[in-house]
Amino acid sequence: MNILLRRSLYLALLIALALSTASSAEKPPADDKFKLGDLIEPFTPPLLAELDKTADWQDMPVVDPMEELRDQKKKEPPLVSVEEALRLHNDSPEDNKKIISALSMVPPADGKGANFDASIGRCQVMDLASTNPLLMSSFAEAEFGDLTALFIINFDWNLVPFADANAVVSWKASKDHLLDKIVLRDDLVWSDGKPITAHDVVFTFQAIMTSKIPIPAVRSGPDQIKWVEAYDDHTLVFFHKAAQATNTWDLNFPIIPKHIFEKSIPEDPTLTTSAFHTQQQLKPVVGGPYELIEWNRGSNLVMQRRENFYMHNGKQVRGKPFFKEVTFHLLEDGNTRLLALKSGRIQETELEAQQWQTQTSGRDFYDSNTKAYGNEWLYMYIGWNLKTPFFEDVRVRQAMACAMNYDEMINDLCYGLYPRCHGIFAPDAWMYPKHPLPLYEFNLDKAEKLLDEAGWIDTDGDGIRDKEVNGKRIPFEFNLTVSLKPDRIDICNLLRENLDSIGVICHVVPMEAAVFQERVQNKKYEAEMAGWGTGTDPSLTSNIFGTGEDRNFGSYSNPKVDALYKAGLLEFDPQKRAEIYGEIANLIYADQPYMFLYNQNRFFGFSHSLRGYRFSPRGPYAYVPGVMSLWMP
User: Fold this and answer.
1) Cα torsion angle, 123, 127, 129, 130, sign
2) pLDDT-derived band of residue 351, with 50, 70 and 90 as boundaries?
3) Residue 269: pLDDT over 60
């Protein structure tokens, strides 16, 4: 799971949004000595004046995200007043629309009506492994990065990319799609007061493209950039390796301070083990609106608004962040999170389906809270490790798909709140197939037939199917790992019961979230239940289903899928791109590297005191302004 987790995934920490287009070969230097940027091919950039003459620059959007949101809200008059919205019980889609329309309001540009002395309590389901944005690998770290990291390219609730006006003066792209020219503002400073310059961006790119620094997640995307040149303290030109439809997204990486890491990285390329880097983990120098002031591992972390983010030389130059302090509480258990919301310890939390349906309908909830949901480009699945003898045969995977009682899963275990999943893209996404394949249905007879065809039969009469593998007969008995979420455990147990009736033994193995994530990332599993967000662009799914890609944890491989992913990168016509990714989706669904379960709506509980939340295909926070639009009156 990866940063681009920040933009990509969103599945409580099991999701990871994949962030990449294609990945490049990474070969460490033969002499094994540290060399910054050793993965970058030598290149001599032309003079800026020469580029300006030949590039045929096209203006690209530079957007103040809060102003964009304010303009959008002007086009969306609230359906009810705030008071009426807070009295509503969210019992229908109409109520949901009313609640969101009234409570997604934001203060005017002067901040009138906002309580800038307010603090907010939020929750995380796992602790951070790192506070360095280059090492982000979980959803918890992505949310931390949303408040503390500096990105110069962001995207809004429609997943439309833009250069952030809080950091950028201008953005231009060459007509041939091979160059991007960005001019940074001159009033950007790190939390230690040092100026943020174009040289920090160049240094960050070089660090990302260094083989000895273990950051493949963040490397995915920037590895498609040939070179980054700082022509002065503020002017940058990005040189792309090829004209690809996703080049804009390759600029979407977090920036680290050169003056902090220039000397320390060669001494400790892991960014974690030296005394200096350990101290940086606890008190990182950051470029975002908040800085870390306290981190109690296993308990909470506290962030404080950074005055030198919005003030410069005694003058306010950016919007003042609405909260003075943000505290993340580590609350892995869903019931504990709900109790924390009801008690006022936290002001927002994601709700599980059962909580939405059965635990948030009474006065004990609605007296001080409300709830809302949004459709999301996110799917839940059971994934198979194709390198195990159990799931290498597509007929076995198809048998698994026939062994799930989908009606019972949706109606009983998910309370009828989720739609069946038809593959890697949500039905309302522009790249969803025009002609999707038929959904698999519950059919144990068909499952048994497919298993027979694949050679898994009960040869010794003990009721368990078996097969000869590498000269040894083994029973069809596997472990299905899942995080400690009751609804997911119940779904896995439903499959276990169905498989037991056809001679397949499935052991459901729940485990703590961080352990689960580590097992899956290291491919030390046979089957796992989790979920993925589609990401900001469909090409990002190649990071999961492309042969040999970083987040292809199940080792799936289909040469036709690989070829189509490459074609999608080179196609700039939106309709033709949609057709390419629709075909990819159908091929993957036919191959069943995953048992696709359901598209997950996202359910949240919010304190009556909270305003400014708005849903997107990636939830209420994983876009810009996202979490930064939350406020209290």
Assistant:
1) positive
2) very high
3) yes
The confidence band for 5, taking pLDDT boundaries of 50, 70 and 90, is very low
8 Å CB contact between 239 and 228: yes
- Cα–Cα distance between 613 and 100 in angstroms, integer? 7
In contact, 439 and 589? CB cutoff 8 Å: no
**573 CB-near residues (< 8 Å, 6+ apart):** none
Amino acid at 313: N
Residue 487: both structure tokens together: 């609804």
155 phi, psi to nearest 5 deg: -150, 155
pLDDT digits (tens, 9 = 90+) for 511-522: 998 899 899 999
- For 524, residues 6+ apart whose C-beta sits below 8 A from its C-beta are none
For 209-266, how does the pLDDT look when each residue is reduced to its tens digit (9 = 90+)?
999 999 867 898 899 999 999 999 999 999 999 999 999 999 999 999 999 999 999 9
3-state class of 371 per DSSP?
strand
Rounded CA-CA distance 181/232 in Å is: 12
- Separation CA 184–CA 92 (nearest Å): 46
- In degrees, to the nearest 5, what angle opens at C-alpha 307 toward C-alphas 306 and 311? 135
* CA separation for the pair 403, 465 (Å, rounded): 15
Residue 294 predicted with pLDDT over 60: yes
CB-CB contact of 218 with 134 (8 Å): yes
- For residue 80 the two structure tokens come to 């009810």
Distance CA 185, CA 171 (A): 12
Burial class (CB in 10 A: 0-12, 13-18, 19+), 90: buried
Neighbouring residues of 486: CB distance < 8 A, sequence distance ≥ 6: 334, 352, 354
Which token pair is 45? Answer: 């950039």
Give the pLDDT confidence score for residue 29 in this predicted structure: 42
pLDDT (mean) for 36-46: 97
- Residue 139: pLDDT band (50, 70, 90) is confident
Q: Which amino acid is at 361?
A: S
> pLDDT of 91-100, one tens digit each?
999 999 999 9
Could you give the domains of the chain?
23-63+129-274 (3.90.76.10), 66-125+289-374+603-633 (3.40.190.10), 378-599 (3.10.105.10)
Alpha-carbon dihedral 122, 124, 130, 134, rounded to 10 degrees: -80
pLDDT value for 513: 85
Helix (H) or strand (E) holding 474: strand 472-475
Q: What residues contact 119, with CB distance under 8 A and at least 6 apart?
A: 323, 324, 325, 326, 327
Q: Who's near 539: CB < 8 A, 6+ residues apart?
A: 20, 21, 245, 246, 249, 565, 568, 569, 581
Q: Token match 């990182």: residue?
A: 284
Distances 84 to 100, 349, 616 between C-alpha atoms, Å:
12, 22, 24
The pLDDT confidence band at residue 614, using thresholds 50, 70 and 90, is: very high
Average pLDDT over residues 299-308: 97
On whether the CB atoms of residues 518 and 530 are closer than 8 A, the answer is no
Angle at 624 between CA 129 and CA 346, to 5 degrees: 60
